[in-house]
């Protein structure tokens, strides 16, 4: 529920769009950053995700810490990466691709 993210016990937070990215920012930080021009502002708060060129929203891994307490089913964790196998097999694949490619 977005209302739980916005109205927290430690202060009021909001979502801001800056250069196709959505940031989760406290209002205190937002008021302090109002004096900085938008062109020179790099980032503000925590990046929750970004809009792609086709206007689809992609959620960043940094948002999972904020969303996990409010997940209804299971955990909000990314899947673990698959292991690559023994180091010898990786070096053979890399050397083969460099020779052949």
How would you summarize what this structure contains?
With 101 residues, this protein is an alpha+beta fold. It has 4 helices and 5 strands.
Q: Using the alpha-carbon principal axes, give the shape.
A: globular
Please tally the helical runs, counting DSSP H or I stretches of 4 or more residues.
4
Report the average pLDDT across residues: 77
Fold-level CATH name = Nuclear Transport Factor 2, Chain: A
Classified by CATH, the class is Alpha Beta
State the distance separating the first and last CA atoms. Answer: 50 Å
The helix/strand order is HEEEHEEHH
- With strands numbered from the N-terminus, the spatial order across the biggest sheet is 1-2-3-4-5
Strand content: 15-25%
**How many strands appear in the DSSP assignment?**
5
Given helix and strand content, the structural type is: alpha+beta
What can you tell me about this protein's structure?
This is 60S ribosome subunit biogenesis protein NIP7 pre-PUA domain-containing protein. A five-stranded antiparallel sheet has the order 1-2-3-4-5. The radius of gyration is 20 Å and the shape is globular. It is 29% helix and 25% strand. The chain has one domain: Roll (Nuclear Transport Factor 2, Chain: A), CATH 3.10.450.220. The chain is of the alpha+beta class and 101 residues long.
């Amino acid at each position: 529920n977005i209302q739980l993210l916005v109205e927290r016990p430690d202060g009021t937070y909001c979502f801001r769009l800056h250069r196709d990215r959505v940031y989760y920012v406290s209002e205190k930080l937002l008021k302090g950053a109002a004096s900085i021009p938008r062109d020179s502002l790099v980032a503000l708060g925590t990046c929750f995700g970004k809009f792609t060129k086709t206007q689809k929203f992609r959620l960043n891994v940094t948002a999972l810490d904020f969303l996990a307490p409010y997940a209804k089913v299971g955990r909000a964790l990314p899947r673990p990466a698959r292991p690559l196998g023994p180091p010898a097999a990786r070096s053979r694949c890399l050397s083969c691709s460099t020779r052949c490619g």
